[in-house]
Amino acid sequence: MADLILYSNPMSRGRVARWMLEEIGQPYEVRYLDYGPQMKAPEYLAINPMGKVPALVHGDRIVTEYA
After folding, report:
1. Tell me, what DSSP letter sits at residue 39?
2. N or C, which end of the chain is more exposed by having fewer CB within 10 Å?
3. 19 pLDDT more than 70
4. Are the C-beta atoms of 58 and 3 separated by less than 8 Å?
5. Residue 65: per-residue pLDDT
6. In angstroms, rounded to a whole number, what is the distance separating the alpha carbons of residues 29 and 63?
7. Contact 7, 62 (CB under 8 A)
8. E strand or H helix at 16
9. In 3D, which of 3, 14, 4 has the Cα closest to residue 52?
């Protein structure tokens, strides 16, 4: 399992964060969320209270907005 988890949607700006991770060769896991209910689910709101993607999780640290 990768240390980094990228929450994204294929049509979001998370593509840029994924591209960066690929370019530097950093192992990561991507979890795609559908717009709407998945992003507003309590499990995801605990990661990003705004209910938006991308979000990048590394251990107990979370980067949102433009991960």
Report:
1. H
2. N
3. yes
4. yes
5. 77
6. 15
7. no
8. helix 14-24
9. 14
Look up residue 38 and give its two tokens.
Answer: 């998945």
Contact 29, 2 (CB under 8 A): yes
| pLDDT tens for each residue of 26-61 | 999 999 999 999 999 999 999 999 999 999 999 999
CATH class of 4-63: alpha beta
Residue with tokens 């709407």: 36
For residue 25, what are its two tokens?
């060769």
Please state whether beta strands 55-58 and 4-8 pair in parallel, antiparallel, or not at all (unpaired): antiparallel
Q: Which two tokens stand for residue 5?
A: 């988890």
* Domain boundary assignment for the chain: 4-63
| Residues 24, 2 contacting (CB under 8 angstroms) | no
